[in-house]
Amino acid sequence: MTRILTFAVIVLALGFGFSWLADRPGVLSIVWQGQLIEMSLMVAASIIAALVAAVMLVWWVVNAVWTSPNAARRYFRARKRDRGYQALSTGLIAAGAGNAILARKMTARTQGLLNADQEPLIHLLDAQADLIEGKYDEARRKFEAMARDPETRELGLRGLYIEARRQGAYEAAQQYAEDAAEKAPYLPWAAQATLENRCRNGQWDDAIRLLDQQKAASVIERGEAERLKAVLLTAKAGEKLESDPIGAREDAKHALKLAKSLVPAALIAARSYLREDNLRKAATVLEPVWKTDPHPQIAELYVRARSGDTAIDRLKRAERLESQKPNNIESLFAVAQAALDAKEFAKARAKAKAAARIEPRESIFLLMADIEEAETGDQGRVRYWMAQALRAPRDPAWVADGVVSEKWLPISPVTGRLDAFEWKAPFGQLEGPVEDLTIENAIAAAPARAEPEPVAKTIVVETAPEPRAEPKPVPAAPIEVVPAVSVPKENKPATIEAPVETNAADEKAEAVPFFGGAPDDPGVKKPGAEAEPKTRLKLF
Q1: Distance between CA atoms of 331 and 243, rounded to whole angstroms?
Q2: What whole-number distance in Å separates Cα of residue 25 and Cα of residue 273?
């Protein structure tokens, strides 16, 4: 662009000069070697311009001829370099695609066209070709040589780290990551691996220091760095809660400043205050987190903060939580549990139903079963609510990489990832309930409550059939048999709900109960067979 502007300015200047001379005509006289030469100013200016152009052209030609050997050498060198870089690019693509033959071919061509000392990527291509061909020892030696070179140290350490992890040498891989993080903390892979290793070993102070270095080097964003630092401070506070409650509280409060909704930090700080029986400060720590993120563990610690409280006191504290976060499933569930402990079954049932309308889940139906058992003792309805709980979605829990934990952990036990645990419903069932588990449908389908009825003692007497009818077989279930009474006007058995007097003659005709015998026993009468005459003579 600068050259174009310069050329335009020169052309405009020449044009302006010639136009100025054309407006001012004159004659130029020159005496040279006794000869008088006269010409106009325009002709003189044109001759001068032509001479300057000719001199420049001659100078360009002479310079081109003089520098042609160097120019030709630079041309062929540049062409060779371009061909080498083209072969290097093709080789790296082939190595990434797993084409060992083409990668090795391009490696040989690149080494012939480029100097390995001037282009470090040739060593990388050579090492990658060895890896594809399965020559791991040679590849490791080349990565070690690259790690000794200051220009390719990071690249060599990266290759050694990946190969060590592939072969299962995790300690060696961690050592390579430590070396890379120490010399270059801005490398994300080295810093992440070193941070996870220090977290696994419980070196929280070293992990926090490394995280601050990453933040200063702009490796991670500020918000993510503050969240991870809060997680590390919470883990550090959780370890020293028993030995140093005050120090654990300070770390937990610092974590809450960085992440205001971090539930584990609030729980640790509140437990530290409760060890000093400082219920008011514990409440000031839990209540802001509860307003931001209602959590059942916060509700449980808040309601049962003091062991000497009565069930009514716990109910009042649960209602206070509900007033701070109304129409929330965790608030309603906490009040329902406290009301059940206080024997206020109507309130417990109402709050449980309201929670189920928001989100029907396993714990709510189990609570309905507890309320039913404590209030009425109706086992049918209790079993019904427990069956609903089996079909309901599972309650949320701390989940990370498919692992469900009862308590929060700073790192994943599977991958070692920091801040991996989330409070959510575990996977392991279908997406959503199979049946419509709304509380209205559940209540409508619930069996009616069983009312207690007076117990009446009745004696069932089976009448014998008429003489012409075939007698029915004697039942084998009852042990005591009352003698039959003949009713002439009816042929069906009659039930008499009155005490019956028996005499000694009838007691002699009492049938012997049957508890099972051999099929070939002649004394066993099969169902549907005719009664024997001997038995009929005994009865009548």
Answers
A1: 33
A2: 105
Strand (E) or helix (H) holding 29: strand 27-32
- Token pair of 156, please? 């060599």
End-to-end CA distance of the chain: 135
Rama region for 277: left / alpha / beta (φ>0; ψ in -120 to 50; rest): left
> SS3 of 422, please?
strand
8 Å CB contact between 147 and 160: yes
Interatomic CA distance for residues 540 and 536, integer angstroms? 6
Please name the residues in contact with 361: beta carbons below 8 A apart, sequence gap of 6 or more: 392, 393, 394, 395
424 Cβ contact list (under 8 Å, min separation 6): 396, 397, 399
Q: Average pLDDT in the 400-419 region?
A: 89
User: How would you classify residue 529: left for phi > 0, otherwise alpha for psi between -120 and 50, otherwise beta?
Assistant: beta
Over residues 451-496, the pLDDT tens digits come to: 544 444 444 444 444 444 444 444 444 444 444 444 444 444 444 3
Q: What is the largest CA-CA distance in the chain?
A: 187
Q: Determine contact, residues 351/299, Cβ cutoff 8 Å.
A: no
Q: Which CB contacts under 8 angstroms, 24+ apart, belong to 441-448?
A: 442/356, 442/360, 442/365, 442/385, 442/388, 443/353, 445/384, 446/381, 446/384, 446/385, 447/380, 447/381, 447/384
**Alpha carbon distance 347, 354 (integer Å):** 11
Q: Across 330-334, 457-461, 508-512, which has the greatest mean pLDDT?
A: 330-334
Distance CA 402, CA 428 (A): 9
Structure tokens at 500: 């019956």
Confirm if 231 and 418 have CB atoms less than 8 A apart.
yes
Which tops the pLDDT comparison, 265 or 479? 265
E strand or H helix at 371:
helix 362-375
| Dihedral sign of CA atoms 328, 334, 338, 339 in order | positive
Q: How many beta carbons lie within 10 A of that of residue 27, not counting itself?
A: 10
C-alpha angle with apex 333: 262 to 367, nearest 5 degrees? 130
Please name which of 481, 439, 436 lies closest in space to residue 462, comparing C-alpha atoms: 481
Question: Which of 318-332, 442-456, 473-487 is predicted with the least confidence, judged by mean pLDDT?
Answer: 473-487
What pLDDT sits at residue 21? 75
Instruction: Please name every residue paired with 411 in a beta bridge, in sequence order, or none if there are none.
Output: 418
C-alpha distances out from residue 168 to 128, 130, 163, 188, 229, Å: 19, 19, 9, 21, 30
Is the predicted pLDDT of residue 502 greater than 50, yes or no?
no
